[in-house]
Write a structure and sequence with these properties.
Layout (H helix, E strand, L loop, with lengths): L1 H6 L4 E5 L19 E4 L3 H7 L3 E8 H14 L5 H16 L7 H11 L4 E3 L16
Parallel strand pairs: 2-4
Antiparallel strand pairs: 1-3, 2-3
Length: 136
């Protein structure tokens, strides 16, 4: 995404997975000074699930660059992030709990470490609403 933004001179980008339905314009969901926005799980399960889904996300280019540097840090042995992911993986392997280590795990760590500038799309009101539990 970062490379795409650079190539097309974009300072902000929305990312929606291929299985996300969008029924309106996304203009107006985030303000001009927004840095990044994700749909967060409820606070009651946020730390037990250890996951934040990227299926619908808004990124400013500087925040996306920052997150990408964080991902590299997470894959670098000896860093705090790497140690947390390693411990999480060991717990998963031992207990066979749901999930594993993936992009959702690193987003959870990123949100915990860098909450400033984060908008929770499940809480934004206005002309529309995001829902991650839509069913027909």
């Amino acid at each position: 995404m970062e490379e795409f933004c650079r190539r097309h001179h974009l300072q902000k980008i929305w990312h929606l997975d291929s299985d996300v339905l969008c029924f309106s314009s996304l203009a107006g969901f985030v303000g001009e000074d927004a840095q990044y926005a994700l749909i967060l799980p409820s606070e009651s399960i946020r730390d037990t699930e250890k996951a934040v889904s990227p299926h619908t996300a808004f990124w400013s280019l500087p925040r996306l660059e920052h997150y990408n540097r964080f991902l590299i840090e997470c894959m670098t042995p000896g860093t705090d992030c790497f140690d947390v992911l390693t411990a999480f993986w060991e717990e998963y392997r031992k207990n066979h709990t749901a999930g594993g280590v993936c992009d959702m795990t690193t987003l959870w760590l990123y949100v915990k470490k860098f909450p400033e500038g984060l908008l929770d799309l499940s809480r934004i009101s206005g002309d529309g609403r995001f829902s991650y539990s839509f069913s027909v």
